[in-house]
Write a structure and sequence with these properties.
By secondary structure, the protein is of the alpha+beta class. Helix content is about 35%, strand content about 25%. The protein has four domains: about 50 residues; about 160 residues, GAF domain (Beta-Lactamase, 2-Layer Sandwich); about 220 residues, Phosphatase 2c, domain 1; about 140 residues, Heat Shock Protein 90 (2-Layer Sandwich), CATH 3.30.565.10. The protein is built from 14 helices and 23 strands. The strands form five sheets. Strands 5-4-3-8-7-6 form a six-stranded antiparallel β-sheet, sandwiched between helices. The longest helix has about 35 residues. The C terminus is likely disordered.
Amino acid sequence: LLTVNFRPTGRDGGPAGTVTTIRDATELRALASRAESGARRQELIYDASVRIGTTLDMIRTAEELAEVAVPRFADVVSVDLLAPVVAGEEPPAGLPRLLRRAAIRGISDDQALYAVGREVPIDPSTPQARALRDGQAVLVPDLSAAPDWQATNPDYAERIVQIGFRSMITVPMQARGTVLGLASFWRRTPFHDDDLGSADELVARAAVCIDNARRYTREHAVAVALQRSLLPADLPQQNAVEAAHRYLPAIEGVGGDWFDVLALPGARVALVVGDVVGHGLHAAATMGRLRTAVHNFTALDLPPDELLAHVEELVNRIDQDRPRDADSASVTGATMLYAVYDPTTGSCQMVCAGHPPPALVHPDGTVDLVPVPPNLPLGLGNSPFETLCADLPEGSRLVFYTDGLVERRDQPIDTGLDRLLQTLARTGRNSEQTCADVLDALLPIHPLDDVALLVAAPQRIAPDHIAQWTVRSDPEAVAPVRAACVRQLTAWNVGDHVFATELILSELITNAVRYGEQPITVRLICDRYLTCEVSDASSTAPHLRRAGSLDEGGRGLFLVAQLADRWGTRYTPLGKTIWTEQLLIESTGTADATAEASERT
């Protein structure tokens, strides 16, 4: 390359003429070209640092690498990852035999030999295998003159050459000394040795992001597995409510949302939904501790406000027991809603600790929020919990949910509550369909918070399945009441349970007359279980004894415990209730149970 310069002479009175200068500019042009190429490379690397790794999603990161490189650096880019890496696991040692296509750019899936999601075999003789084995980028300057890269699929390789692809660079994707996958760059113009550095830098940036996403995926999978293992696998068999539920973890971190349906004595049911503020393993583990505590306190048959007070104490104790040098977050901010529904009366007691109020769908389709006193969240104080008692009409539905369903960063919670009420007003009457309709209408594509949803349609026990008597404080009153109970049991056609129930009632009524206080009542409930309840105004609980061989007494409650499937004591504002349960029916569904119980009447 020559540079020619003409310059006139004689401008200051000298002889007229021209001066011609000829210079070899080949080296200058090469320097300018390298400078321009370096600027383009720096711009490419800068864009890669901004555009690659915007999410903790491995597949999306692979797509971002391909998007940055095409068409500025290559005509086609393919990114393949090890299958264990995609699953969030540690990659195995040694040369992999198979990779999984994560992204391809520059051609469509149907034009590619391996579409996204397909397995990509690695032939040991190919440049890809050599790059994985040596841990270094491999440049194939002329594809038509390099038969080794054609080993996997010669027909496809020939088609690639015929299309016009001239050159390829394949780069192992490594992070922390571990190979995660492989990126291949294809170009219709030749690659040069200078391009190896650009390819290495692009892939190195993507590899770090993919490794971070892999480790996050593993932790997220562990947290999701822990969360799901701590949630109920199935709801208990009971006739009090027709219940349906959903739990959906957040896209970027499991939280501490949970729900529960717990069968209580007296055919009642407890409905629970809660939320531990925060995400990750700590929130899921704390949720498990709180849910276990609720189970244990429910077994004591405590009133809802007392139960929440005990959970409050547990939350405070968890915070106090944290190691001083630990970085784990406090559980302060946990919320909970606890309700007990009684199908014999249709009443529902609800108590809330900073949780969003439930929605009640009335039989006529109108919807409103139940005005449960909000109280403070768990762990923020030891103030008394106010309780609401409401009557739930037949045909209504009670909807419990966590704030992830109605709250967004870009909208106030009132907007989400309005959308929830509008959706419930036009959904079907079935609990399962209600769950599906609510999630379809309110759940975002990428939820940033967990969502727990529980829909319960209350049922009533028919009045003729309930019988009640008042007992005088006179031993002679035991026999007439016992006889009346036997007649009722015979009318209910409970079969072999008549004799056992007669013995149970005889013992419980006799103890109430002998040791209890007026008023004394006996109640029988024929549902899934045959429930016997003997109540009196005394707060003294009976004690199960194991009488010796020579003792004359002390065998009554032991006999009751042997004859009943379950028994216990429930304290009430008026005294106590001793109850027993005997399973009447085995059924897979509430409808079957109700129908079978109705046939006995």
